[in-house]
Each structure stands twice: as structure tokens, then as C-alpha cells.
Amino acid sequence: MLNQKFSKMEVIEMAKDIEKRGLDFYRSQADKTNNEEIRELFLRLAGDEKDHFERFDNLGKSIKENSDYKEDHVYDEQVSTYLNALVEFAIFPGDELINKEFNSMEEVLKLAIQAEKDSILLYTEMLDQHSGITVDIIEKLIDEEKKHLQDLVKLNASL
């Protein structure tokens, strides 16, 4: 699987999957905590992830509607390998971890912090494969993911 090439649309689909997993993870964790501050943060992050999913979905629709769009798989092998590794090792956890009962909030935050870092890495890699308004959208998402990271690190430090 590591040698698979990714088209622009495949990368967008990966990003949508990541955002959906983030949405599910943050909603699940919000439901599990009794701490109102943490619950509010997780619900806000879940809302942001939903918004990110919708932006990637709209971006994909826009690309498909463009008459110049072709599904082309001619990408740099190193970039494809890197993106594949990120997805293979799941930026946000699958269902088994979304529904897991964690031992501590620190454990939850550690997972969320790593997922946000990995999202930033993936979206930064996506910049090389896109142009125009797509780059603007991805750069804005990177900034928002960095804000998520800062909020999570700040919360973790306060525990």
C-alpha cells in the first residue's frame, strides 16, 4: 500500500475522512467528560472539524465541476508514500479508539494533540499538489488546526 499514488481527489477524500474522524472523536470525548470547560472545548473542536469536512467536500465538488479536471495519478512517489503513511497510521483514531474509555484526560489530550499535529503535516503536504483558491482554503485550515493544537496544549498544561 505504501507505493500507491494519490490524485488530488484522493487527497481531498483522505482529508474529509480525517475531519470526520476528528468530529466523531471530539463529540465522543465531550460526552464522556464531566468537566464543563473541557466539554465546551471538545464541542467547539467538533464543530470546527465539521466545518472543515464541509469545506473539503465543497472543494472536491468544485474540482469535479471544473471542465479541466482529470483524475491523474502522476505524483511524486515520495509525497505519495508520505501521505499514505500518514493515513495508514490514522491521524485521528478509528472507531475502536473513539469509543474507548481512556484512563485519564491527559491520555485523551495526548492523542488529540498528536492528531492535530499530523493533520497540519498532511495539509502542508497537500499544498504542493494544489494551486489557486485551493491553496488559500488549505492554508486557512492549517491555521485553524494550529489553533486547535494551541488550545489542546494549553488545556493539557492546565491539568
What does this structure look like?
With 159 residues, the protein is mostly helical. The protein has one domain (8-158): Ferritin, core subunit, four-helix bundle (Ferritin). Helices cover 75% and strands 0% of the residues. The protein is built from 6 helices and no strands. Helix 1 packs antiparallel against helix 2. The N and C termini lie far apart (40 Å). The model is unreliable at 1-5 (pLDDT under 50).
Write the CATH fold name: Ferritin
What is the name of the CATH superfamily?
Answer: Ferritin, core subunit, four-helix bundle
Number of structurally distinct domains:
1
Estimated radius of gyration: 16 Å
Please state the overall shape, judged from the principal axes of the Cα atoms.
elongated
List the defining traits of the structure above.
159 residues, mainly alpha, Ferritin, 6 helices, 75% helix, elongated
Give a short overview.
This protein is an all-alpha fold and 159 residues long. The chain has a single domain (8-158), classed as Ferritin (Up-down Bundle). The chain has helices at residues 8-32, 36-65, 77-88, 95-98, 105-127, 133-158.
SSE layout and pairing:
Blueprint: H1 8-32, H2 36-65, H3 77-88, H4 95-98, H5 105-127, H6 133-158
